[in-house]
Write a structure and sequence with these properties.
This protein is α+β, with helices and mostly antiparallel strands and 351 residues long. The chain contains ten helices and twelve strands. It has a seven-stranded mixed beta sheet. This is LDH2 family malate/lactate/ureidoglycolate dehydrogenase.
């Protein structure tokens, strides 16, 4: 792995977006969000996605000059139109809006429509935990990779869900999960690196395991927990898609294979002010007590013992902030190729 300082990587991504016609302020906002994903170890949803975003900007699938805006609002809710721009812009606005509403109404629920892929859902719940709130975020996947349980037609995406909560002494609780056994981004990363995927991630239409990520188009992702994962994916799709007037089912556009059509991606962000229910210090003290109990549970043989969702990400981030963002050589090559095409400075000399 090659390590690149976060600031230098942010500057590189900003230059790339500016060269593609994105306003400088918006370009840096998206670049910072993407690099934050890499700092936290979500390497399948950070700068790895730059090429996909640039393809859509080039071909008209995404609006380079987008200006997300509120189109409907109550005291505790809002609906944001992403103006078909980079999804990070709409989702960052959704986080700010949800938190503002939670401060005054106790809860803020913000839906998003006409958005695009926005990276890992965890990015949009961490600010709530840092502010003493509960955070929830979900999205309709940017391509359909999963059939309904018992079927073979691809009608649902990985439809991720993230939940956060503050703690007192340690890292916040942050759960970020796809409703499939693996996210498609992980499989694309393995394909780029020439590695195989484990059995159980995908199966072919013949019902047999599929382990070659280069053949991913021949099969489909498996839901977590069988029919329960399918049901959860559909529930998130209703909240992020149908409720917001966004795509779900056959109306979902594969943002990778179709770079010229608007995706109308739907998402949602929730902020809950803990102080509206219980004193924040009492909440974090009790959360710390429960977390300590879980960590102290006897370890299962062959494992490192229990961990709390999110705490390992904080350790990864601290290391990457200090040492630089780790980039696989194949990704460095791909990013430098993009730089040449856009006539901007590449990663040479960084890290």
């Amino acid at each position: 792995m090659r390590r690149v300082p976060a600031d230098a990587l942010t500057d590189f991504v900003t230059r790339a977006f500016e060269a593609a016609g994105v306003d400088g302020r918006a370009a840096r906002d998206v670049a910072r969000t993407m690099v934050e994903a890499d700092l936290l170890g979500y390497d399948t949803h950070g700068v790895f996605r730059l090429g996909q975003y640039l393809d859509r900007l080039r071909d008209g699938g995404s609006n380079a000059m987008a200006s997300p805006r509120l189109v409907r609002e109550t005291a505790a809710t809002a609906l944001i139109d992403g103006d078909d721009g980079l999804g990070h812009l709409a989702m960052n606005l959704a986080v700010r809006t949800a938190m503002d509403k939670a401060r005054s109404a106790g809860i803020g629920w913000v839906g998003v429509r006409r958005s695009n892929h926005a990276g890992p859902a965890a990015l949009y719940v961490r600010p709530q935990a840092a502010a003493g709130m509960i955070g929830i975020a979900g999205a309709v996947g940017s391509a359909n990779h999963m059939p309904p349980w018992g079927g073979t037609e691809l009608l649902l995406g990985t439809n991720p869900l993230a939940v956060s909560a503050p703690s007192g002494a340690g890292a916040p609780f942050v759960l970020d999960m796809a409703t499939t056994v693996a996210a498609m981004g992980k499989i694309k990363t393995l394909a780029q690196r020439g590695e195989r995927m484990p059995e159980g991630w995908m199966i072919g239409r013949d019902g047999l395991p599929l382990t070659d990520p280069a053949r991913r188009q021949e099969g489909f992702l498996m839901p977590i927990g069988g029919a329960k994962g399918y049901g959860l994916a559909l529930a998130i799709g209703l909240l992020g898609g149908v409720l917001n007037g966004a795509a779900l089912g056959q109306t979902v556009v594969d943002f990778t294979s179709d770079t010229s059509s608007p995706t109308n991606t739907g998402q949602f962000v929730v902020a809950i002010d803990i102080a509206a229910f219980i004193d924040l210090q009492s909440f974090t003290a009790e959360a710390d007590r429960v977390f300590a109990e879980l960590r102290a549970a006897p370890p299962l043989p062959g494992t490192d013992g229990p961990r709390i969702p999110g705490e390992q990400r904080e350790e990864i981030m601290a290391r990457n902030v200090a040492d630089g963002v780790p980039l696989h050589p194949s990704l460095v090559t791909a990013l430098n190729t993009l730089a040449e095409e856009l006539h901007v400075a590449g990663l040479d000399g960084m890290g």
